[in-house]
Amino acid sequence: MLWLKSRAYVYTGEPIPRLDTKDYAPFVLNYQKSILQALVKRNILTISQAERCLEKLEAKS
To answer: What global pTM score does this model have?
Structure first.
């Protein structure tokens, strides 16, 4: 499983755009990956389960 670099996002007070467009697909995919990583870290998912989910997410996008 590929682990993401730690990043910080700061809310600047601007309106938050909708995240359903293709312009934000990389952000949404990284967000979903981070959720999978958190579930693996908490032993809710195994690494193989997370990898399978990741394959489905990448195929979908």
So the answer is: 0.64
Calculate helix-pair angle for 47-60, 25-41, nearest 10 degrees: 170
Helix (H) or strand (E) holding 25: helix 25-41
Burial class (CB in 10 A: 0-12, 13-18, 19+), 13: exposed
Secondary structure class of 50 (helix, strand, coil): helix
Is the CB of residue 21 less than 8 Å from the CB of residue 46? no
Structural domain boundaries of the chain? 22-60
**Rounded average pLDDT over 20-30:** 80
Q: Token pair for residue 27?
A: 């952000």
Cβ-Cβ contacts under 8 Å for 27 (sequence gap 6 or more):
19
